[in-house]
Amino acid sequence: MKNNWKDYDKNRPIRHKFYRNKKWVKIRNDYFNSKMGMCERCYQKGYIVNGVIVHHKEYITDQDFINWNIDKLFAWKNLELLCMKCHNKEHKTEKGYRDNVIIDEETGKVKIIDKEE
Question: Where are the domains positioned within the chain?
Answer without folding.
Answer: 5-85
